[in-house]
Amino acid sequence: MAKALLGYVGGSDPRLLAEMRRLQQRVQDLESELVRIQAENDALTSTAVASHSELLDVPQAEPALT
User: Fold this and answer.
1) In whole angstroms, what separates CA 30 from the centre of its chain?
2) CA-CA distance, 63 to 65, in Å (whole number)?
3) Which pLDDT belongs to residue 33?
4) Which tens digit of pLDDT belongs to each residue from 7-45?
5) What's the half-sphere exposure (Cβ side, CA atoms, 13 Å) at 34?
């Protein structure tokens, strides 16, 4: 009888616990992907800044005398 009451009152439902674990794992996966993408973005940004600054360092040709 006690088991029936516990289940009726809202004991731990295995399906609910499984769904909660699945969602927690999904959140962890998404957080890991976010960190990876941010690192990749930072690397691409620093590469773009470096190549842009190299373009700015090109010496200018002096104008030809006419």
Assistant:
1) 6
2) 6
3) 98
4) 555 567 889 889 999 999 999 999 999 999 999 999 999
5) 6
CB atoms within 10 A of CB 39: 10
Backbone φ/ψ region at 11: left (φ over 0), alpha (ψ -120 to 50), beta: beta
Alpha carbon distance 25, 14 (integer Å): 16
Q: Hey, what are 62's tokens?
A: 């002096």
Quick one: tokens of 60? 């200018």
- Residues listed for the chain: 66
The pair of three-digit structure tokens given for residue 4, joined into one six-digit string: 């029936």
